[in-house]
Amino acid sequence: MDYLYILPELIIVAVALVLLVGAALSPKDRQGYMPVVATAGFLAALVAVYPALGQETNIFGRMITVDGFAQFFKVIFLIVGVLVTLSSAGYMSKQKTSGGEYYVLLMFAVTGMIFMASSTDLLAIWLGLELVSISSYILAGYRREDPKSNEAAIKYFLMGAIASAVLLFGLSLVYGYTGTTNLVDIAQIETKALAGPAVLGVAMFMLVAGFGFKVAMVPFHMWAPDAYEGAPTPVTAFFSIGPKAAGLAAMIRIFPVGLSALTSKWSLLFAIIAAVTMTVGNLTALSQKNIKRMMAYSSIAQVGYITIGLAVATAASVNAIMFYIMAYVFINAGLFSMIILLDERGIGQKIEDYAGLSQRAPVAAAAMVVFFIALIGIPFTSGFFAKFFIFAAAVQSGFMWLAIILAVNSAISVGYYYGVVKAMYLDAPKDASPVKVPRALGAVLLTGALATLALGVFSEPFIRLIGLASLLR
Amino acid sequence: MMLPYAWLIAALPLLASLAVMFFGRRFKNGGDFIGIAAIAVSFVLSLLVFGQLAGGAEPYRFTFTWLNLGGVQVQNGIAVDNLTAIMLVVVTLVSMLVQIYSRGYMHGDVRYTRYYATLSFFTFSMLTLVLADNLLLLYIGWELVGLSSYLLIGHWFENPGPRYASMKAFITTRIGDVGLFIGIIILYLTTGAFGFPEVAAGVAAGKISGTLLTIAAILVFSGAVGKSAQFPLHVWLPDAMEGPTPVSALIHAATMVAAGVYLVARSYGIFAGSPTALGVVAWIGTITAVIAALIATLASDLKKVLAYSTISQLGYMMVGLGVGGYTAGVFHLTTHAFFKALLFLGSGSVIHALHTQEMHEMGGLVKKMPVTAWTFIIGTAALAGIPPFAGFWSKDEILLSAYHYNPIIFGLTVFVAFLTAYYMTRAVILTFFGKPRDHHKYEHAHESPANMTGPLVVLAILAVVAGFPGSPLMGNWFGKFIHFGEFEAEAAVPSVMAMAIGAALLGILVGYVIYGTRLVDRRKAIAATKPVYTFLKHKMYFDELYAYTVIGGTQVLATIAGWVDKNVVDGIVNAVGWLGAQIGNISGWFDLTAVDGAVNGVAAVVSGAGRRLRKWQTGYVQSYALTFFATVIIGVIIYELIGG
Questions:
Q1: What distances in angstroms separate CA B361 from CA A55, B373, B577, one per listed residue?
Q2: Which residues does A3 contact at the CB level (< 8 Å), separation at least 6?
Q3: I want to staple B79 with a disulfide (CB 3.0 to 4.6 A). Which of A93, A266, A391, B133 is the partner?
Q4: Is the CB of residue B427 less than 8 Å from the CB of residue B304?
Q5: How many CB atoms lie within 10 A of CB B137?
Q6: Average pLDDT of chain A?
Q7: Continuous H helices in A94-182
Q8: Residue B95: which residues within 8 A CB-CB, separation 6 or more?
Q9: Tell me: the pLDDT tens digits for A79-93?
Q10: DSSP assigned state of A142
Q11: Neighbour tally for A131: CB within 10 Å
């Protein structure tokens, strides 16, 4: 039964549809159950991943692939779903707009992400991407009464549509030349046959641009800071981890696996993009005053680090990307839970609004320090191993220059992360009243911090797990 | 087999700590029963582990690859051998009794739940330290117990005293920890391992020897000096008495402060290679024992007497280890844990009743609090070394080892035995006998509730019997169980035993004559010994010395550093910061101006000059889109031209 393999997706879609009806039937002030149901749906889907673990097959006419790689990302995305839902509950209940469709859109987006990671067919990947994108456009503009949110949505939508068009054009060129949309078949075509015509180079470039837009690589990143700043903060949290991780998963399917014959061509391209993305992200983050904008540039920089893994394109580097994404999901979800809280309480989005947070919410401030330490890449946090594995993979494959740029960049990043830590610990608060952390956000914060420390202390079992799920061997 | 499940002993208190922290407030009693239940199970498990090893089971070790960094594998794991088993029983038992006792003592405290959560967390950390099979995990546990100690000393952080004391404890012990960490690194670099057996094997194989080994061993010992409050880092422990008394009993008497002694015992294989390092251990222990015992003779705060006594007795254990009496040192650690916890909890019972720690405001309490008084007296007898109480047997073994090692150390330790008996007699008489000196407080005094006296009785029984396993009466069973190298029963030397008993009895007699009778006029005695009295009353001016030298010196250095910081480093930092900001600005400016400008230029050409572009509606999004397309097109062109 093919349907058994997509049980998690079916559960999410079913729950989303139930919520859609529920949103229409229940008034705004009676929708407190929605995040609970959504969380339950994600958790049920997580359980439903179990029966398919360890299996490898193709279903639905080779449109969907069941393998370790897909299961790995399925689990990651479902965890993202849970964390974002928990982070959203308090914030969304305070919005004027009805919260109902919010969770539905979130669930659709997560479904799209799962399809992106679990398909070896270009068309299915593209469909998944569109499902994520269209849900994301609406989510970005969810605060209808807020002009900034509207601006973010429209910018994101217009740019996204263009990127999708370019991507689709690139895909059509690939199909036109190879006669198939299946990446496994494309990989079978001999190197010479593929490497010859210029048209495939053009197609490849379009794919890089299209996906580069989705994961915000420089120079396709310009929408990101605006969208991050304008979108409702829980949505920003989602953008910074969900669609990004899905885009990277699809890129691993397409480039190192599907277009492996063209490695010599896209490898250098990704190397350059990685170097530029890291540097631009970090340098621009230095001068940001708004923490959401700072985190937007920070996440651009993080994608830059991950892109090194794509450029290197060895088994080690792909594993490193997977570890990085796993670590990054928990770090950013945890970090954003506090940004959401301060935004929700009206304390602010500026870095100066974080002054004296160590006195107002000591545990939360300490957890934030853990996240920043991890983002910098200091030992005993997951961030250290994430960077270390990328670094090691780059050095092993002779990309010494990229490794050096990574090290320099991670030193630069101390500058802006430290700014927030300094505000929290050294600056006096304008208002010393304690900030109480609600239970749902506290759970996200704590899960993030514990996972960050656990991955930093016990990386070994996870590395082994990723080794099992790896696409390249 | 129980041994493979030994990790549960540490895991249960951790789970309890988390459970109490998050859900404790929902329960009527702040979740205290969760902590007590968990530690009780841990205690039973520890007993089972102990029983199996005592029954001749092979020690158990579990390791796994913790880190795999580019070919360098770092192992981590736990080990359960005889030494661990003894420590497990001691830690879980005292911890359990203290948690039960705290139900009475901390009743109604504002941060009752937090207190229990931290207490369980401490127990977890201490058990991790004990279970570690390698220096790295031990170090992690070591830091975690330090953290718990800091949190618990500062439990009443509204008051300046606890706040200051917690900082002092944390910083002072950290000085030793730095040394310990450097020592660990040296050992790793030379022997290539963190595990205790591997490091010891490396030392035995001569991978590290001579001066470097001595340095490494002394660095490891410096960690013990900080944690076990040895001279010259002993100053934090008396101040740590600002914490709740059950905490003093658990952490600052029975377990954490003994971690230093445990560390030396656990890494004895390293010390065995360097007689010099062992000599340092012995001498530091001796100096500490003498100094602390002298100061204790004049302390007027009941808990401070016990604190200095603890320092002194920890010095005793170090002497035992330093002079080659491995078994003796560990044995004294065990018995001391029981009777010193008893004395602290007894003092806590008194403080609970009188709301004062000053012995000048006590007196005559034996009538009001018989259980507290008599258990306290049993503890005193054990500490003073009166046969057949527990302390006698362990102290005697240390004296015996010292006797064979060095006459000066032996003489000083006998002197300390005399002082110990003296100051404890003084404390007992001032607290429980004579006439009440503060009638108001005396009238309100009452015996403590059963959940406080119960643990006292249990510990009192242990203070009587815990010494027998190490005595000839039971054929030196303890020595056969815990020994370094081959077991060899040391023949008892009757003269040593006689001197030990004599010193103790003399101490009690002198104490009784001065404080129990009117034969000596204390004012005259004080006047006659004014300089010595003042010197000891000021705790030998250690705090003042450190204030002037270390802290004062640091302040001078800080002033200098501040100046350098302001004028040199700040300049550099500012320059770098300015540069960074400029680059950031340029990059931002480039994004906005150059890219947008170029794009806008193109846009202007495309859409016809003269049309003013509105900011986000047309201008920005269009420019973004154009950048996007421009990049793709220019990229493809360059790519096709160069790469083909």
A1: 77, 16, 61
A2: A10
A3: B133
A4: no
A5: 21
A6: 89
A7: 100-117, 122-140, 147-178
A8: B13, B39, B43, B119, B123, B126, B250, B255
A9: 999 999 999 988 888
A10: -
A11: 19
Amino acid identity, residue B128? T
Residues above pLDDT 90, as percent of chain A: 50
Task: Say whether B580 and A392 touch across the interface (CB within 8 A).
Answer: no
Q: B359-377 pLDDT, tens per residue?
A: 888 888 888 888 899 999 9
CA-CA distance, A267 to A71, in Å (whole number)? 27
Task: Show which residues on chain B lie within 8 Å of chain A, measured between beta carbons.
Answer: 64-70, 577, 580-581, 583-585, 587-588, 591, 595, 616, 620-621, 624-625, 627-629, 631-632, 635-636, 639-640, 643-644
Type of residue found at A389? F
For chain B, give the mean pLDDT. Answer: 82
Q: Which residues pair with B74 in a beta bridge?
A: B67
- State how far the Cα of B35 lies from the Cα of B56, in Å rounded to an integer: 32
Instruction: Please spell the DSSP secondary structure of B128-154, one letter per residue.
Output: HHHHBSBHHHHHHHHHHHHHHHHHHHG
Which residues in chain A have Cβ-Cβ distances shorter than 8 Å to B624? Answer: 155, 159, 222-223
CB-based burial of residue A431 (10 Å sphere; 0-12 exposed, 13-18 middle, 19+ buried)?
Answer: exposed
Instruction: Please report which confidence band the pLDDT of residue B614 belongs to, taking 50, 70 and 90 as the band edges.
Output: very low
Distance CA A114, CA A75 (A): 9
Q: Could you give phi then psi for residue B78, rounded to 5 degrees?
A: -125, 155
pLDDT in tens, A458-467: 888 888 888 8
pLDDT of amino acid B596: 55
For residue A428, count CB atoms less than 10 angstroms from its CB and return exposed for 0-12, middle for 13-18, buried for 19 or more. Answer: exposed
Q: Is the dihedral of CA A466, A468, A469, A472 positive or negative?
A: positive
Q: End-to-end CA distance of chain B: give it in Å, rounded.
A: 69
Q: What does the alpha-carbon distance between residue A189 and residue A178 come to, in Å, rounded to a whole number? A: 8
Residues from chain A that touch B580, judged by Cβ atoms under 8 A, are 283, 286, 412, 415
Amino acid at B572: I
B388: preceding bond cis by omega (within 30 degrees): yes
Residues 6+ apart with CB under 8 A from A342: A348, A349, A353, A354, A357, A435
- Give the helix ranges, DSSP H, for A289-381: 291-312, 315-344, 357-360, 362-376
Tokens of B382: 């054990």
In DSSP notation, A70-102 reads: HHHHHHHHHHHHHHHHHHHHHHHHTSSS-SHHH
Ordered by start, the domain boundaries in chain A are: 267-473
Quick one: tokens of B393?
A: 């047997």
Residue of B nearest to A284 (CA): B584
What tens digit of pLDDT does each residue of B131-143 get? 999 998 899 899 8
The distance of Cα B550 from the centroid of its chain, to the nearest Å, equals: 22
Is the bond preceding B232 in cis, omega lying within 30 degrees of 0?
Answer: yes
ipTM: 0.76
* Tens digits of residue pLDDT in B497-514: 888 888 889 999 888 888
The alpha-carbon gap from B398 to the nearest alpha carbon of chain A, in Å, equals 41
Strand A64-66 to A57-59 pairing? antiparallel
Cα distances (angstroms) measured from residue A253 to each of A66, A247, A262, B632: 13, 10, 14, 22
